[in-house]
Amino acid sequence: GAVVSQHPSRVICKSGTSVKIECRSLDFQATTMFWYRQFPKKSLMLMATSNEGSKATYEQGVEKDKFLINHASLTLSTLTVTSAHPEDSSFYICSASSRAQNEDEQFFGPGTRLTVL
Amino acid sequence: AQTVTQSQPEMSVQEAETVTLSCTYDTSESNYYLFWYKQPPSRQMILVIRQEAYKQQNATENRFSVNFQKAAKSFSLKISDSQLGDTAMYFCAFMVGATNKLIFGTGTLLAVQP
Question: For residue B32, is pLDDT > 70?
Fold first, then answer.
């Protein structure tokens, strides 16, 4: 149980285009979803927290207009990188938690590698 | 602000031996949780073990155990009988109970040698 998927696993795009990454909880309802960014050989940095039906809460320094987060249902959250540039290239990971389970435990997706040319 | 420090960027251990990974944290909160996550080459984050701050007893999960020293704000991970599959990056993480936000340390790359 508690499986989280991400799609796509890898994406390459041209500079200036937008890219959407999906995060799905497959066998539970995710009350809260989190989006992280991980640079090579670095730690995970929390970008934003989203609750179903509410606006996402962004961490300091994260541009909300550049990284659009939508959490329209209890099983799906999307991260859209708008007008992507090479410096946005990174590994993006989502996680999900649920009030029905241990809310303090997050279940992680397998990540999405974004490369902006 | 909460911080998590892992002072060992890389470690190596022989198969079947025991290794301890260090983690210290800083917080003024009283209600929090501590975690160790494993990130193998596949990049999938896997929960290894968790500890509630209010529990004095150290958590254990099979070959994995922690030494939780609350006063010293220390949370080390001991891996017994190391296996090749334990090779991974290990992250210590901290969560304040009310926020559910995870703050990660910088990680320790563990290599298990045959």
Answer: yes
